[in-house]
Amino acid sequence: MELNDFLIKLSEPARRAIKELHCNQLEDLLSYSDQELLAMHGIGPKTIRILNDFLTVHKLDRHPLKSALLVIDMQEALMDEMPYRKQELIANINEIINHARKQRIPIFFIRHDGGEGDTLAYGEAGWHLAKDLNHQGEPIVDKRYNSAFKDTNLESLLQAQKIKHLMLVGMQTEYCVDATLKSAFEKGYQCTILQGCTSTFDNPWLNARQLIDFYEQAIWPSFAKVVSVDEIK
Asked: Which of 15, 35, 101, 189 has the fewest CB atoms within 10 Å, measured from its CB?
C-alpha cells in the first residue's frame, strides 16, 4: 500500500506535516506513535482517526515490523544442475523480487563459496548469481557455511536498517534455506517462507518434491509462516 493512497485523504496542513517527516512509504509513517504525530503542527485527532480507519479497511498492522527479502544461493552452478521446477522457481523468485522493489523492501542476495575445487568456489563461473535472476545491484552477502549468518555481515546489515522480519527464498530447501531460517529464528527475527520459492534435488531417500513438502508442512511452520506468493502481494 502506497503512502500517497493515505495522504490524499488528509487536509493540506496534515499532508504538509507528514511530508516534513520525510517518509517514503507508509511503513515509515507507522513507526511514529500517535503522541509523536499529534505533537506536529497540522496533525490533530481527526488525522489519527483517518489513519486508523485506513489501516482497518486495508487490513494493515498499526505497528508493522520492517521486512527484508533474502534470496539465498541462486547461483549458476546450482541452476546448471537443474533443481526441481527450475523455471518456476526463477519466475516465482523474480516476481517476489519485483514486488519487494515496488514496496521498497530491502533485498539481500546470499552467495555461497564452496571452497577450492567446488563448483561454487569463489570466482568460478558457477559461483556467480544465476543469469536469469533479477539482480539490480542490491547487496550481496558472501558465505561459506549453510547459514547466511555464520561469519558474515548479514546481521549488521539488517540491524542497520532496523529489520525485524525476513522473507526467505532460494536454494537449497533442506540445506542453506533451512539453516538460515533456524539461525534467524534463534536471533529473534520473525520469518516467512514463500511456497514455490525454494527448491532442491532428489536424493537417495526422498525426491525433491517430497523434501520440499516435508519442510514446508512438517518442519518450517515451527519457525516461520509458510505462505504463497499471492498472500504477501
From this structure: 35
